[in-house]
Amino acid sequence: MSKSYKKQTFFAELKYYVLDCLSASKTKIIITSFILFVSLVLGIILAVQYNSDASLNVLKDYGIVKFVGSGVTTTFFSRLLSCILVMLLLFGCSFTPFLTPLAIILLAFRSYLLGFNFCLMLLTYGVSGIIISIFVILPCQVFLILLLTLYFFMLNKNNCDNRCYGGKGGKMKTILCFALILAIVCLIETILLLIFNANVIIVI
User: What does the domain layout of the chain look like in residue ranges?
Assistant: First the structure.
């Protein structure tokens, strides 16, 4: 009974913190989301430009991962490590408002890579690229970027509240919770890519 109560309390607290963050940082999140969308579109535009250029032949041989055999495990951990590295950088940026632009640039760069990767998959692999990009890569990676954005603003608000009111918030719980969710999403994406026996350009 106590374990069940603790679980309910944990999820209730998490829900409260998320809703509180969304409410307090609404304007910042909207502006950041717009920047991320522009970065995504920019990545798509540049991928189209590369497609009409001879340099695409070079890109086709760069960073291609085929999801078969033992390479799957390596690719999963590469993706997870990439997310954890971004989490650590965002954690560092959350301590002062002056580093917020740096965090947004980091998130925008991932969004740009997603747009570039998404469009390049469509142009390079045709129908199979469309299926993989639309039903696997795009939803998983967009969800990851949104999670990282929420993660940053939750830490940012937590640090701001600590400076204003004192005390120490549950940053470690936030970090571990988001790390677990990111790991699950990376695992789901990897399994789906393995099922489709996919070729993926650029591991992000």
Answer: 2-201
